[in-house]
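Task card 7
Instruction: Convert sequence to structure tokens.
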Amino acid sequence: MGEVDKYIPQPERPKDQPFLLPIEDVFSISGRGTVVTGRVERGVINVGDEIEIVGIKDTQATTCTGVEMFRKLLDSGEAGDNVGVLLRGTKREEVERGQVLCAPGSITPHTKFKAEAYILTKEEGGRHTPFFTITVRSFTSVQRM
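Output:
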């Protein structure tokens, strides 16, 4: 195995950046509370850390009261780990897949953005059938003389 390790480098784990975990699933555990699962993309989460739930709904502050990985309780989870995070005082209905857990103030949610897109022509290897149709509505008034 040592020979394999020489050729396959260990991936970089961005532990020095602010904590970020996209929420994959949400569970309610009786007697414990709400648990969200996902892969820590960057940073470190420790038991007792203040965190925010951002996206889809209004931003909500909460506290991490537990970290679990593969049915083992941990003191922390770091970038690259698939973890379950137990949230204090958060109901199951207040969290959903698609939101993120993050360090307070590290993520700003946006509801509008401007984008510019270039769609390849048929000759460039793009679509040969349209993916939208243009509708022009015209209103005409008629006067009697």
